[in-house]
Amino acid sequence: MSRSFRIATFNLESLDDTAEPPFDERVAVLRPQLERLNADILCLQEVNAQRIAKGEPRIFRALDRLLEGTPYAGFHRTAGDPGHKLSDRHNLVLLSRWPIVEARLHRHDLVPAPQMRLVTADPATTSSDPVTWDRPVLHAEIELPGGQRLHVFDLHLRAPIAAPVPGQKKNASTWKTVGGWAEGFYLAAIKRAGQALETRLAVDRVFDADSQALIVVAGDLNAEMEQTPVRIIRADLDETGNGHLAGRALVPLERSVPEERRFSVLHGGEAVMLDHLLVSRGLLGWFRTAEIHNEALGDELIAHATVSHSPESYHAPVVATFEMPG
Asked: CA torsion, points 257, 259, 262, 268, in degrees to nearest 10?
């Protein structure tokens, strides 16, 4: 039996079969990308869920159609806790060749929603309201062939785009005042850092139970390696300043990719690394290679202005190969 396996992350960009472009066009672009990954564990972001009939629970019809005819169709799957109701947009989904022993969603169970009184809201308010995260963190435990447990965190952090402030927008893309935009940007930063903090605390709980735990944090973090959300999750030794905590730091596998290829998004001509695989020291010992499949990546900013109904994802998949000790 092969001892090697592959873990990948891919933001599918609002995967749906109810809008333009025609879904077959999306399948023609996305399915080869998934097949090339050849992943044993696949973390997906932005998977929309559909209703078959009014009043019925949502299902992953579009995802099932995309995976049809691929090995992933027979994989174990989770989108969170048993009985979790799927959102219409941007669900997290984890696919695994091996059994998923347990899965849970973290959303304000480890970090309470901060209370904030908006100072630019119109009309003005004197009360504080909770600042809630846009999306949860998906944590799954997978039983590997050797009996070891692998902890996988699949997440999608908020983009650094100003969050709405009551009465401060003329329309979806136009703000009334600079102050309103600035407070919206501040709100978005709180949400994104809060998601990162909740992820870090969930990771620390795993380390509390097993200091040598096999952990991977995967997903679209909407931040580069040296930006605040990723720094919170990584918890590098030079940040904590405590040598006893070195074993709890997470290592970004993208560092093994040549710098000129180290990007997962093109934005207005700038190459940025927003999609990450961060692993514990225990899992790092099994790590062999990492790849970023960005050869055909289009520029998201230019494409949104010039391309009608693009079938592509403007995020490159990231995949790493590991080898279990044998």
From this structure: -170
Q: Cα separation of 69 and 140, whole Å?
A: 25
Q: Fold for 4-323, please state it.
A: Deoxyribonuclease I; Chain A (3.60.10)
Banded pLDDT at 1 (limits 50, 70, 90): low
Domain residue ranges in the chain: 4-323
Question: 13-17, long-range: CB within 8 Å, 24+ apart, which pairs?
Answer: 13/46, 13/312, 13/313, 13/314, 13/315, 14/46, 14/48, 14/89, 14/90, 15/44, 15/46, 15/47, 15/48, 15/62, 15/63, 15/66, 16/48, 16/50, 16/62, 17/50, 17/61, 17/62, 17/65
pLDDT tens for 233-269 read 999 999 999 999 999 999 999 999 999 999 999 999 9
Distance from C-alpha of 188 to C-alpha of 164, rounded to nearest angstrom: 9
